[in-house]
Write a structure and sequence with these properties.
Blueprint lengths: L7 E5 L6 E2 L15 E4 L1 H7 L37 E3 L1 H7 L3 E6 L9 H14 L4 E5 L3 H13 L2 E7 L4 H9 L3 E5 L3 H15 L2 E2 L8 H5 L1 H9 L7 E5 L4 H16 L8 E7 L4 H7 L26 H11 L2 E5 L1 H15 L5 H15 L8 E6 L24
Parallel strand pairs: 5-13, 6-7, 6-9, 7-8, 10-11, 10-13, 11-12
Antiparallel strand pairs: 1-2, 1-3, 4-5
Helix pairs in contact: 3-4, 4-5, 8-9, 12-13
């Protein structure tokens, strides 16, 4: 066995504080809450320092001490992580956010940030002896978990709404997953997965029903801190469906603070949703700790069409504790933001990524984002994975034409 030097200690329920052993397969806590990986940060502080990262590989596995995989032989990787942070000078001038940056997850394997959660989640599933996993998905998570399961030699069963992007369907099928479509929402797919897991004893890889996807997603927060030389930005905006990324970033920053890698106030975290599916925004505006099911949800940003997130209470806690907020934008604003980013910066982001740019503009107009503040937009995927988002008419030329 080749150790990763991970300081993962156990699994802890954030609601009832019950602890579970790391070496056993666990899904939700007995109280129904998601479980989180807890690390022995006091011990980590003695051995893991900023200098430890010098000369390490440019992937999320550079943070192995703060990841749950115990044996390096179980790491399933396609080189994911350490995506660039790009200054958006022209878009920043247009939106009056002088210090605007984009962390671009579109260049990661499978084209979205979902590869992070899949890499760590599948690695731990392999380490725990899982043979078959199942999950509901709006598309990209299913594609990522299918690809990483294939690399690990695991079987994946994927269930998605019938109007999920065809590209993600093809990725699942190409990777050999058992793929099924449902006439309904991701919440309907989740109910089928829950019944099937109960029937067959499969590993439930649904959002936050296993504890390790969040550990992969939290590496976005670790990277942002390191890439800004441990001097944190003022605001981080994140497109929020299931909300695992924002929960993970908040978790990562708190762990870094306890390690002494960063100091001072954490960035204000912003959960961005579409007006057609905004349960977190509604709950935040009402000062609630949990959201309600958002009926008849619909948005062009398909990845954030999640009417009720299992970890909503953790998302809202991250917003409240950092002085952040939740913001909704219309589909028209999303499409306009997508065009604007592409035309001013050459960055073809996904609709979810365009939503956070639209939200940032509104927050700056309201002076919630102040002049001179450093603002990071977290684009969660490549625009080319959504070829039908923009409707563009292209003129034809006669073959003998001259322009």
């Amino acid at each position: 066995m080749s150790s990763t030097n991970s300081f993962a200690a156990n699994l802890v329920c954030p609601k009832c504080k019950k602890e579970y052993a790391l070496h056993e397969v666990h899904q939700l806590c007995a109280c129904g809450s998601p479980l989180l990986v807890s690390y022995d940060l006091k011990e980590a502080k003695k051995h893991f320092h900023k200098e430890s990262l010098r000369d390490r590989e440019s992937s999320l596995w550079r943070y192995k001490e703060l990841l749950p995989v115990q044996d390096e032989a179980n790491i399933v990787s396609l080189g994911e992580g350490f995506t660039p942070i790009i200054p958006l000078k022209r878009a920043g001038e247009k939106s009056k956010i002088q210090n605007l940056y984009l962390k671009d997850e579109g260049i990661i394997p499978t084209g979205t940030f979902k590869a992070r959660g899949a890499a760590v989640g599948v690695s731990r599933a392999k380490e725990l002896g899982v043979k078959v996993l199942a999950m509901p998905t709006n598309g990209n998570a299913g594609a990522a978990w299918s690809v990483y399961s294939a690399r690990a030699g695991l079987k994946a069963t994927i269930i998605m709404p019938e109007d999920a992007p065809s590209i993600t369907r093809n990725e699942c099928a190409a990777a050999g997953a058992d793929l099924y479509l449902v006439k309904g929402l991701i919440s309907d797919c989740g109910k089928i997965v829950a019944r099937s897991v109960q029937e067959h004893g499969w590993y439930d890889a649904s959002t936050l029903k296993e504890p390790y996807r969040i550990e992969g997603k939290k590496t976005m927060g670790l990277e942002i801190a390191e890439q800004f030389d441990w001097k944190l930005p003022d605001v981080i905006l994140y497109p929020t469906g299931g909300g695992v990324g924002i929960i993970g970033i908040y978790k990562a920053l708190n762990e870094l603070k306890e390690l002494g890698f960063i100091e001072g106030k954490l960035p204000r975290l912003v959960a961005v949703q579409a007006e057609g599916c905004a349960p977190i925004v509604k709950a935040f505006q009402e000062g609630k700790k949990e959201s309600e099911f958002f009926a008849d949800s619909k948005t062009v940003a398909f990845g954030i069409n999640v009417p009720k997130a299992l970890g909503d209470f953790l998302v809202l806690e991250a917003l409240y504790q950092t002085g952040g907020c939740a913001k909704a934008v219309s589909d028209a604003e999303i499409l306009e933001g997508l065009k604007e980013l592409s035309q001013t910066e050459g960055t073809f982001v996904c609709p979810e990524g365009a939503a956070i740019y639209a939200a940032a503009k509104k927050l700056r107009e309201e002076n919630w984002i102040k002049e001179g503040e450093r603002v990071v937009l977290l684009n969660t995927g490549a625009g080319i994975k959504y070829p039908d988002t923009l409707s563009i008419e292209v003129p034809y030329l006669d073959k003998d034409a001259v322009l």
